[in-house]
What does this fold into?
Amino acid sequence: VEASIPEPQRAAWSRNQIQSFTDKDGFEKEVVRHVETTLARSMFNCDESAAYSATSLAFRDRLIKDWNKTQQRQTYRDTKRVYYLSLEFLMGRALDNAMLNVGLKDAAKGGLADLGFRIEDIIGQEHDAALGNGGLGRLAACFLDSLASLNYPAWGYGLRYRYGIFKQEIIDGYQVEVPDYWLDFNPWEFPRHDVTVDIQFFGHVSKTTKDDGKTAAIWEGGEIVQAVAYDVPIPGYDTPTTNNLRLWSSKASGGEFDFQKFNNGDYESSVAEQQRAETISAVLYPNDNLERGKELRLKQQYFWVAASLYDIVRRFKKSKRGWNEFADQVAIQLNDTHPTLAIVELQRILLDIEGLEWDVAWDIVTKTFGYTNHTVLPEALEKWPVGLVQYLLPRHLQIIYDINLYFLQTVEKAFPKDRDMLTRVSIIEESQPKMVRMAHLAIVGSHKVNGVAELHSDLIKTTIFKDFVEVYGPDKFTNVTNGITPRRWLHQANPRLSELIASKCGGNGFLKDLTQLNRLEAHAKDAAFRREWAEIKYANKVRLAKHIKNVTGVTVNPAALFDVQVKRIHEYKRQQLNIFGVIHRYLTLKGMSVEERKKQLPRVSVFGGKAAPGYWMAKQIIHLINAVGSVINKDEEIGDLLKVIFLEDYNVSKAEMICPASDLSEHISTAGTEASGTSNMKFVLNGGLIIGTCDGANIEITREIGESNIFLFGNLAEDVEDLRHAHNYGSHSIDSDLEKVFGTIESGTFGTPHDFSAMIAAVRHHGDYYLVSDDFHSYMETHRLVDESYRNQDEWVSKCITSVARMGFFSSDRCINEYADGIWNVEPLVVQE
Ligand code: GPW
It folds into this structure.
């Protein structure tokens, strides 16, 4: 029941809200107030942790007002909204972002200084919100930033994991995983204990005859788990628009444990039931580009999707519109296939609960959904055993079979007698056991399917989804090249560079229209500007060098070339190629005379990234990197000429420090395997150059910045298949330099050779699937070009400036506008100040 407070009175209350702070003094007052009341502490024992809490609370108060206003306006205007469904949102820290977005970081800096704190230390108190694995989750976070900054009415929907991605410790050169319990104090989330949804699992389906004589399905029995909403405000940059990220947490239905059982003495089972329910949102699966088909994962997917759809439908129904308007009011984007059950769930709601005809319902469903594919790797394509789906979601399996039936009927009409075609496109794989192919279901249930970079979007059309292009025609398939938010990845991560750019680009406008970076181009020739530019890069390297010293004890020379590869550890991303290259460089240096060595350019090879806990080979790679580092870093003959660093626990906040400090970054995946990559964009935007393969977005980065500003090497995607074939069926000769590297490892230079034998065998004896041997020579040659190029600092810095000037295309703002126009058909809605 809604409270019946007269409208004028509500409006008056609304106007009389407490004014939020707008300057340093106002900020200080708010901090003191929060320390002394909200936190119930005294200013006398206000430490950095308390100062962080109070600062966050002060900024949170500001966000809440804009947030409420935004939501009210969106409800009132009732325009079309976008819903971005993602199992991962890799948000990182929120405070710095909030301060910059509302334009009060300087006020906070001054205020905190008055109170005796350095703002960096306070920002550093915050625990990363790490509800994601890597690129896919970070893309979702960048998209939320752009959606809000561009004033689109948009909500994110995800899971509120109690444990985000694990923390990585390196112990004796090996990865050790530590749980990431991050919710101790999280001022950025708002529990909505009044927003709950009951989610059903298991049970059975029966048929009933309705009044009109038609039959309807009823899904009964099983168990109920409750979804509780937690909301996170998403502020836009330089706009009052503050969108919502709604994360669902699981709870036993009926609140806590079952008191009936409890009072009857059945304590264990009542507590066990509670724990089982809470397990659903307990932990993020730590796999990147891999699906392992675990029952709990499927439960997570349905739990989150069903709660989100219930919420979306409930909101739509408030507008009292007819179902024929649903797709005009609602666009839902599926971030990979993880939320594909949403297609089935919406069809179920329209059919079984709302009583629509199949065709009418299905038309609404397909107009509502869009599907983004992020990989062509077969091991990452989701498939669920039919038996598991049947057991967990019996009604959904029926609907999936019906969707498939109608789909295959239309295919049959278009391709009569082509049994193979039907087998290939079927949503059900007729294997033992039978599997539901989630990508097929996502394609059939969406009106648009997109890849995330040009090469990738072409590849899905010619390989994994080729048959669907035949069935639907090419227009259903499109490309939206990924982007990154320049607010976090330039303005926040690299404030000095951002300021220098602003000074040449007519202010901060480039942060909202990144194409304005092209105004920098003319300054690449300006020696004084280049000096300022280089000075900032150097300062960023000094900062990283200090961090390296702090956490590893190794001293690195900030004047050396910093060569960085930070990303999830994966054979396809080829950190093994990089470390083999480092060993080769070491051997070359060792073979030189002292005189010759003096002429060499010092290098620091920085690695970082997590291996999935069950990915044995990735863990071997981490071990080799650390083993190589511990030998080379102690070698006095080599000294500064080569250092090898593995930075533990790579995450968003560390990326914000690392990207601005790189001279060269490595994006060296086997051609055709990295759908896009997004850190490549971050590094170039921060004035670093790239060594990379012709893969993913590297290709478009090259197109934009020019071939002379990137170090490309290696075989092309179109040749990969033949090369693999040759390895397996022809003769596979391994590059002689690479053999020397293997020989050195096998001689025990980096510890027990046996530890690394599998990595070598993968190349020598198991078909070298990732083409390490094929690309090694051109990789090393290209590194020689890098060295040569770096010697001419004027030219190097010019290349960096020119590249940054040409990076406008890679803003996630451009990307979101493309989705809005080409897929969602939504318009921005400006919230008045
Ligand atoms: F396998 N990506 C990721 F496609 O980070 F689902 N995790 C994943 O599980 C998958 C993809 C999945 C990444 C891609 O590897 C990367 O190339 C891309 O830039 C990023 O998604 C965002 O599109």
